Amino acid sequence: MASLIGMVIPDGTNQFFSELALQTQRQLANKGYPMVVLNSDNSRENEVQAIDILFKLQVKGIVFVSVGDNEAVYHSLRESDVPIVIMDREIPETERCDFVISDNKGGIIEAVKYLHSLGHNKIGVVKGSQDTDPGRVRYNAFIEGLKECELSHDPRLEFDGEFDYWSGAKAADEIYNLREKERPTAVIACNDLMAFGLLQGLAKLEIKVPNDISLIGVDDIPLSAWANPRLTTVRQDTNQIAIAAAELLISRVAGDYSDDPRLRSVEPRLIKRDSVKIRK
Predict the structure, then answer these.
(1) What is the pLDDT of residues 125-162, one digit of tens each?
(2) I want to staple 198 with a disulfide (CB 3.0 to 4.6 A). Which of 61, 118, 168, 190 is the partner?
(3) b/e per residue 43-77 (b: at least 16 CB within 10 A)
């Protein structure tokens, strides 16, 4: 196909990425560009192979969502003449790449301030992978949010995570092992999958959300509205991200733009549901 576009996502089982791929495919199809999606399955090696496959298919453009820091892939993208839109991160020293990111910093700070406004002073965090831009930015924003609210930073209330369900379940065990007075009154999980793991893990340990611990996720995947309790979360607007990515890519593929890299930032939105409660 002369106008074929390729997309690489890191985890097709994560509703955020599958929804992002679906929305991007729709936007491109509306403009006459078919798209093929490859899943790297959270493997840097698979990611390199996926990009190589797309080059061999002679796609006219690529939409790329990275597993994490991967200099081998970054080098391939820098050397390529194929127009590329990168989601979730910026890569320095690129010429034919544009970027679409969500304002992770603003979204997390808003979540911290919201919890503080409801009386929560002991706020914990389940961190995402620290070898990814979103993981680092969200964690640093959490620390900044605490400072803006003049709240103390307690390392005991930080729990390592890899953006998967099991990271949240593990954090539930770690919270349970804290003395009751040391436990957080609220937790921000840096994506919804970890929030679900934490929610179910706490339930098994008879710690109730939100009566005992309030909980906020990030992404607003469809399952967030179906959980019990329904999950309060920082929405990343996959439709707006996809619209921006399609516009940027098509302008390069069609030859309408060939100048310096462009950056589009999509504003997040705090979706308030049932997993947060006022702390009395």
Answers:
(1) 999 999 999 999 999 999 999 999 999 999 999 999 99
(2) 168
(3) ebebbbebbeebeeeebbbbbbbbbbebeebbebb
